[in-house]
């Protein structure tokens, strides 16, 4: 009986460890190395209305398909209070192209952070790209407003019909409800450290 209790406790703890944030939850905080060799924290964005947090990488074909769209999102929404912050959760030993020097070479105008601490687990990100729209909530917190895909056409930007993320931001700006708040992220599975 004691072994069974111990196993149940271990199982329950593992479920908590694998838990992902849900829409409406407080966003987990982070402080990670950026490609400009500074550390960037979620708290650095306390003056913003929100943050477009995208777990992505260099090697995944889907991440490559979305690269220009991610740049366009930052260009379009940074001045409106919704900058992009990208996080690379992949192990560069397994995937050399996801190494820090390759991240630096991207030259993004937004932070591109190395997740060597497993922040992706706290969010429950499992694909690249995987989006979390964070909305300012109180003095130093953000809440999760949307989780999922950027749009409905991972492989071809010219075929996009539903811009899930942009529609979510527009709803927030109008003061209306985000719909949908959750979509399925399409991409490569995360290859963690």
From TrEMBL:
<protein>
    <submittedName>
        <fullName>Thioredoxin family protein</fullName>
    </submittedName>
</protein>
<keyword id="KW-0732">Signal</keyword>
<feature type="domain" description="Thioredoxin">
    <location>
        <begin position="21"/>
        <end position="170"/>
    </location>
</feature>
<feature type="signal peptide">
    <location>
        <begin position="1"/>
        <end position="19"/>
    </location>
</feature>
<dbReference type="InterPro" id="IPR013766">
    <property type="entry name" value="Thioredoxin_domain"/>
</dbReference>
<dbReference type="Pfam" id="PF00578">
    <property type="entry name" value="AhpC-TSA"/>
</dbReference>
<dbReference type="GO" id="GO:0016491">
    <property type="term" value="F:oxidoreductase activity"/>
</dbReference>
<dbReference type="InterPro" id="IPR047262">
    <property type="entry name" value="PRX-like1"/>
</dbReference>
<dbReference type="InterPro" id="IPR000866">
    <property type="entry name" value="AhpC/TSA"/>
</dbReference>
<dbReference type="GO" id="GO:0016209">
    <property type="term" value="F:antioxidant activity"/>
</dbReference>
<dbReference type="InterPro" id="IPR036249">
    <property type="entry name" value="Thioredoxin-like_sf"/>
</dbReference>
């Amino acid at each position: 009986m004691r072994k069974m209790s111990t196993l149940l406790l271990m199982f329950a703890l593992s479920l908590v460890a694998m838990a992902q944030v849900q829409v409406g939850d407080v966003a987990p905080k982070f402080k990670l190395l950026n490609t400009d060799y500074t550390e960037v924290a979620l708290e650095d964005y306390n003056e913003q209305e929100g943050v477009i947090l995208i777990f992505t990488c260099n090697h995944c074909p889907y991440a490559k398909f979305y690269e220009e769209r991610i740049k366009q999102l930052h260009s379009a929404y940074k001045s409106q209070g919704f900058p992009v912050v990208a996080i690379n959760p992949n192990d560069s030993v397994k995937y050399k192209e996801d190494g820090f020097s390759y991240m630096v070479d991207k030259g993004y105008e937004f932070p591109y952070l190395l997740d060597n601490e497993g922040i992706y687990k706290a969010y429950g990100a499992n694909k690249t790209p995987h989006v979390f729209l964070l909305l300012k909530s109180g003095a130093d917190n953000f809440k999760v407003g949307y989780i999922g895909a950027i749009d409905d056409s991972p492989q071809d930007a010219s075929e996009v019909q539903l811009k899930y993320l942009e529609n979510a931001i527009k709803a927030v700006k109008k003061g209306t409800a985000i719909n949908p708040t959750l979509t399925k992220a399409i991409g490569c599975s995360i290859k963690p450290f």
